[in-house]
């Protein structure tokens, strides 16, 4: 099995409007697992829900993924779905029915990345200079886009863009969106909360990823742009850079 090497870094910011940062993230290089979560804005215990998601998922992955006897696409996707549903029940047991969080995660196995998510936090892949959105927003506004009732541009400011259709803390069994991609040297994976997306257009994100090799500069510039454009929400950005063969140094 081909393995890839990577560097990873993340940064979070409260933004200019919110009193509390209800975003959370986790980086577990031993598991090759990376998580970004966003507590449901304005909801009591939203920040706590996001923290539980970021803290618990690595533990659940360690319990389940590492003990799969035959790891293949089917078994890994099934296990990730089970883990997310278990996390869903944990949140409901701890915090009740009135709160929740989004989640977007990347699990790297060999030269593959499994991307799982619920809610409107996003994952992007920069490959061959093109920025590819790997996730679809689980909210009412995106449902209206998919049915042709509004445009993607209108969805950015639609009053129902924050009404989630899927999230951690939902009632009953949930079906997360899980996607597998093959990683290549030079790829960049970006995980972020909607505090970035609502303030910074995708073409601006693409430009920063193309022009800046330093991971810290990418994170700082994206968060600065979101704040300069209003900073209406918490902002979290996590970047994974897939290294080229033999590369053992990096400009952080």
Structure description:
With 252 residues, the protein is of the alpha+beta class. It has a single domain (6-242), classed as Phosphatase 2c, domain 1, CATH 3.60.40.10. Helix content is 32%, strand content 26%. It has seven helices and ten strands. It is globular. The mean pLDDT is 92.
Domain count: the total is 1
Name the CATH superfamily assignment.
Answer: PPM-type phosphatase domain
Computed CA radius of gyration, to the nearest angstrom: 17 Å
**How much of the sequence is in beta strands?**
25-35%
Biggest sheet, strands in spatial order?
1-10-9-6-7
The overall strand count is 10
Mean pLDDT over all positions: 92
User: Percent of residues in helical segments?
Assistant: 25-40%
Number of helices: 7
Helix/strand-derived category reads alpha+beta
Give the CATH level 1 class.
Alpha Beta
Major sheet summary line: 5 strands, antiparallel
Q: What is the approximate shape?
A: globular
Secondary-structure topology with pairs:
Layout: E1 6-13, E2 23-28, E3 33-39, H1 46-64, H2 73-95, E4 101-109, E5 112-118, E6 122-127, E7 130-133, H3 140-146, H4 152-155, E8 177-182, E9 188-192, H5 194-197, H6 202-211, H7 215-228, E10 235-242
Helix pairs in contact: 1-2
Please provide a brief summary of the model.
Helix content is 32%, strand content 26%. It has 252 residues and is of the alpha+beta class.
Overview features:
252 residues, five-stranded antiparallel β-sheet, 7 helices
């Amino acid at each position: 099995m081909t393995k890839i090497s990577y560097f990873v870094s993340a940064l979070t910011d409260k933004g200019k409007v919110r009193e509390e940062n209800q975003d959370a993230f986790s980086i577990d290089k031993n598991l090759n697992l990376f998580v970004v979560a966003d507590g449901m804005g304005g909801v009591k215990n939203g920040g706590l829900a996001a923290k539980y998601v970021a803290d618990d998922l690595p533990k659940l992955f360690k319990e389940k993924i590492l003990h799969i006897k035959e790891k293949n696409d089917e078994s890994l996707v099934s296990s990730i779905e089970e883990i997310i549903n278990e996390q869903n029940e944990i949140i409901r047991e701890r915090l009740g029915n009135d709160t929740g969080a989004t989640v977007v995660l990347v699990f790297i196995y060999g030269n593959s990345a499994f991307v799982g998510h619920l809610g409107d936090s996003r994952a992007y892949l920069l490959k061959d200079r093109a920025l590819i959105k790997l996730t679809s927003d689980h909210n009412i506004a995106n449902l209206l886009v998919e049915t042709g009732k509004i445009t993607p541009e209108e969805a950015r400011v639609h009053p129902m863009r924050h009404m989630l259709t899927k999230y951690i803390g939902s009632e009953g069994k949930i079906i997360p969106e899980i996607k597998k991609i093959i990683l290549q040297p030079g790829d960049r994976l970006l995980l972020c909360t909607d505090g970035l997306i609502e303030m910074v257009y995708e073409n601006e994100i693409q430009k920063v990823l193309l022009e800046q090799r330093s991971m810290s500069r990418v994170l700082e510039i994206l968060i600065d742009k979101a704040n300069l454009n209003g900073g209406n929400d918490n902002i979290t950005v996590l970047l994974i850079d897939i290294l080229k063969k033999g590369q053992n140094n990096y400009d952080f």
